Amino acid sequence: MKMPLAMKTLTLAVLLLTAATAFTVSADTAPYWEPIAQNGDIPEPLWEAGASFARSNSNPNVIYRFGGQVGAFPNDPTRNDFYALDLATFTWTNLTTNDTPAPRADTLMMPGPCGNCVSIVGGRGRFRTGTDLMFPEMWSYHVNSGQWEEVAASDPEGLGDPFAIRRSSASVVVVPDAKHPQKKTVYAFGGVGNTLPAFPTTPTGLRNDVAVYDKDTGWSLVPTLGSEPAPRAWATGVYDPGTNSILIFGGYRLGEDQGPTTPPFEIFGPTNWENDLWSLSLDTFLWTELEPAGPLPKPRDNVPAFVDTTRNGMVIFGGQAFDELLSDLWFYSVADNTWTEMALDPGSPVPPARVGAIYFVRETATAYELYLHSGSTSDGGPGAFLNDLWRLTWPKGL
């Protein structure tokens, strides 16, 4: 049985989350992709993993990857592989031990909350088992000791509300404190709420609420105002410091004409993918649909994205649409409220289109670097799982 496109994830691991004015590409500003040679314990190909930097001053250029899934239904086990990638040498280290948390996919990951820690939050088991396999829990990995620690649900200053993190495939947005960049607030929007049969048609199958992590009280749901986005998973979220808001783009949802009685074979059609754009003010927690003018990206989910503060806008790449995997590049101007499809440098290669990859962003003095790793070239049918590493260099508008 073929797994629908929407049952994949592209996991956000972005610490440099910020938004970008339309601009003209010239020879010295054209973005370009390049494959990166990897060293060490290169992970086996898979998809639907989670990734994040740790909260660390001593080792800020190491990205951690946890979990994922391999194979195709009905032989598609989840994994608990745990790796670290040193971006100075592009060397992988396998950190998996007998104490690594249980296998899961589409896991949320975040830096901290403790010093020199990285944490996994939520996640799911396999779809189409007939049971609900979610992980409403949080584990922290201590970088210095190499030990995992579960955040106790009974600790009032630990986990918080388990329902707030009973999700996978959510948009994770890390917001730095303007005065203290090492202090960060973590938000999670939407996601998958259960793995029951035909989960999108169930009351909690797709979520549109917002959770926030507080170091003193743990996770909780944030009351929001205004009309809110439709429940969805595999949406893209970034932080726009210019407006102090979270931008949410696209994702997978139930179509407007669908509901609890929609047959399972009809819930992965052309109306189930979105290209809408929303803003959530972190000053008022008011939702606003932005409705950009002009050409729009094709509806999609699983989209890598980052914010270019030098141009006041958001960059997105690829993703999965109803009928294809994409490899196009778009720029959203916050000031103009418009999308522009961007051209790569004429000599640039392009990564194989994929779904279920991880991505992360690093900022240099002259550019933003978007890294893309793993994923699958198919929607769950015959295809190739990947473990390649690519870097998009996006020159800053200095």
Reported by name, the CATH topology is Neuraminidase
Specify the CATH homologous superfamily: Kelch-type beta propeller
- Please tell me how large the radius of gyration is: 19 Å
**Low-pLDDT ranges:** 1-22
End-to-end separation: 51 Å
CATH architecture, please?
6 Propeller
Q: What do you see in this structure?
A:
By secondary structure, the chain is mainly beta. The protein has a single domain (5-395), classed as Neuraminidase. It has no helices and 26 strands. Mean pLDDT is 91; it is low at 1-22.
Sum this structure up briefly:
The protein is built from no helices and 26 strands. The protein has strands at 11-13, 32-35, 39-40, 50-53, 62-69, 78-86, 91-94, 108-111, 117-121, 138-142, 147-150, 171-176, 184-192, 206-214, 218-221, 236-240, 245-252, 273-281, 287-289, 305-308, 313-320, 325-333, 338-341, 358-363, 367-376, 385-395.
Summarize the SSE layout with pairings.
Blueprint: E1 11-13, E2 32-35, E3 39-40, E4 50-53, E5 62-69, E6 78-86, E7 91-94, E8 108-111, E9 117-121, E10 138-142, E11 147-150, E12 171-176, E13 184-192, E14 206-214, E15 218-221, E16 236-240, E17 245-252, E18 273-281, E19 287-289, E20 305-308, E21 313-320, E22 325-333, E23 338-341, E24 358-363, E25 367-376, E26 385-395
Parallel strand pairs: 1-24, 3-7
Antiparallel strand pairs: 2-26, 4-5, 5-6, 6-7, 8-9, 9-10, 10-11, 12-13, 13-14, 14-15, 16-17, 17-18, 18-19, 20-21, 21-22, 22-23, 24-25, 25-26
